[in-house]
Design a protein that fits this description.
Elements (H helix, E strand, L loop, with lengths): L1 E4 L8 H6 L6 E4 L5 H11 L3 E4 L6 H6 L1 H22 L4 E7 L22 H20 L2 E7 L2 E2 L8 H13 L6 E3 L5 E2 L2 E2 H12 L7 E3 L5 E2 H11 L8 E3 L17 H7 L7 H15 L4
Helix pairs in contact: 2-4, 4-5, 6-8, 6-10, 8-10
Amino acid sequence: MHGTSRDAQLASFSNLARLGIREQVKPWSMSTTDFRSVLQVLLRVRPAEVYNLSGQSSVGLSFDQPVETLESVATGTLNLLEAIRFSGLPVRFYSAGSGEVFGDTDGVPATEEMRFAPRSPYAVAKAAAYWQVTNYREAYQLHACTGILFNHESPLRPERYVTRKIVAAACRIADGNRETLVLGNMDVARDWGWAPEYVEAMWLMLQQDIADDYVVATGDTHTLAEFVEAAFSCVGLDWHDHVRTDPSLFRPADIRRGAANPHKANSKLGWHAKKRLNDIVAAMVNAEVRSGDRG
């Protein structure tokens, strides 16, 4: 297995070490926004499959860094597609899409046929990347697909993501810290799944004879308040005693309720999400407690 980083010699790859697979991955220095470096690594590795998981991945941060977000997601995807086309290698290509592209569907579960209505620079970039993949698949017959993934969580999330922020704070407070957890809009609702299961869906997409795009989700939607309640319940606390909201943390534009219908992935890939909200939160809390890293 090969992996890339902007500077592979300096990167710590701490998450790979945490998973116990650091020695199984050969790192390469590559920036997806630099076509030359993309092509060089592709020709040296000559991979059978490429999984494009790179790019700025925070919706909130994309409002502060819209240009970097568009370049890293959209231009990065385009460079990978063009390098595969130019090389002529029989590569199967997976691109990480996002359920954010659908915008606010008023609770109507999104399918692969639903119209895109992105509400953030991140979502706009992911929509552009999606259509690039579609274009290269149709114009050049590349085996290229997009996984339109809804929120997927794991203990490897950095704490700037709200789900890990919630779990880490709940564990610290349970340990005796007297802090108050400050959050933005608690009424937003999302379809939260378990990241390891979603990686299996990614792999399954590239094992199909015909490349296609798939919505990957659990089919269940919960509010952020429900996520918070589940996290604090896991450590024996009432979240109302430890959490407050701050309107300054609300996003300039946000999706009120994200919902998805993963029927196509269920039926064509044979993939089904197993973990649901309470399972996911419990797994994250348990990992946080085991790590002892709550600072």
